[in-house]
Design a protein that fits this description.
Mean pLDDT: 86
CATH architecture of the largest domain: 2-Layer Sandwich
CATH topology of the largest domain: Beta-Lactamase
Order of helices and strands: HEHHEEHHEEEHHHEEEHE
Structural class: alpha+beta
Shape: globular
Strand content: 15-25%
Helix content: 40-55%
Number of helices: 9
CATH class of the largest domain: Alpha Beta
Radius of gyration: 20 Å
Distance between the termini: 33 Å
CATH superfamily of the largest domain: GAF domain
Low-confidence stretches: 244-255
């Protein structure tokens, strides 16, 4: 990856709901970059609308990102019907239902619905754990092990609970099991007392474009795992078939 692109991505990742504004000095210190380089990146991003400059020479995310986000959603197979389906299924199962995709660094939430306000509850754009979530395990299983190992070397496998997989060999075994089963499952790795299964959403040429998960209390999941897998797979087919039309290429299909 070009250094400029890598640095730009790292700069944008600093802007969060908890830290919405950054100055040149703070960004340079956080990323270990020269202030002159940091200044050039921030001003360039502001010029193209990805950042906006506030008072006191500070920066926050720019409104052009909203336009890009809307274009992304309108050009994908995820729309208002997706949210309606996810919310309806969550209420029907008294569960949390989430659709997520791999964005190159981790799993990003596309849509999520929950029957209650108890964990895990996600919002659109939230990043999920790659190694501890069922969504992450399924999506990372589509990567080469070299890519997975590179990510482990960079970010590690931090423990979210006492059940979180913590070593590369154990994680590799989990990914191998995902390939064999065709779906992913985790028990209490992300949230104690909760378990999740995840199935893929595929393009017709068999490339996984996203994944759908169902999360429930672990006791419920252990008793109804096979049923939830079938429901998730059927929902994936419904979502993609609903989107398929002669005007959209390529058409989508599900396993």
């Amino acid at each position: 990856m070009l250094n400029t692109i890598d640095r730009t991505g790292r700069v944008l990742n600093l802007f969060t709901a908890e830290a919405p504004e950054w100055g040149v000095t703070a960004v340079a210190a956080a990323l270990g970059l020269p202030k002159s380089t940091t200044f050039d990146i921030l001003t360039s991003l502001a010029e193209i609308g990805l950042l906006q400059q506030t008072s006191g020479d500070r920066y926050r995310l720019g409104w052009r990102l909203l336009a890009i986000s809307r274009r992304l959603m309108s050009s994908s197979c995820f729309n208002a019907h997706t949210h309606h389906t996810v919310t309806g299924l969550a209420k029907h199962l008294s569960a949390t239902v989430t659709i997520g995709a791999w964005d190159g660094q981790g799993v990003v939430c596309i849509a999520s619905g929950s029957a209650s306000r108890t964990p895990p509850v996600l919002t659109e754009g939230t990043h999920l754990s790659g190694h501890a979530s069922a969504l992450g395990k399924l999506l990372m299983a589509q990567l080469s092990w070299a890519k997975v190992q590179e990510r482990i070397d960079r970010y590690g496998l931090p423990a979210l609970t006492a059940n979180t997989v913590g070593d590369a060999d154990g994680f590799r075994t989990q990914l191998s099991n995902v390939h064999q089963r065709g779906f992913a499952i985790e028990h209490g790795e992300a949230v104690i007392g909760h378990s999740c299964i995840a199935v893929g959403l595929y393009e017709c040429e068999r490339r996984m474009i996203a994944a759908l998960s169902i999360c429930t209390p672990s006791t419920t999941m252990r008793a109804r795992q096979d049923e939830y897998v079938r429901i998730a797979q059927r929902t994936a087919r419904t979502l993609l078939q609903h989107d398929a039309s002669p005007k959209r290429q390529p058409p989508y299909c599900a396993t």
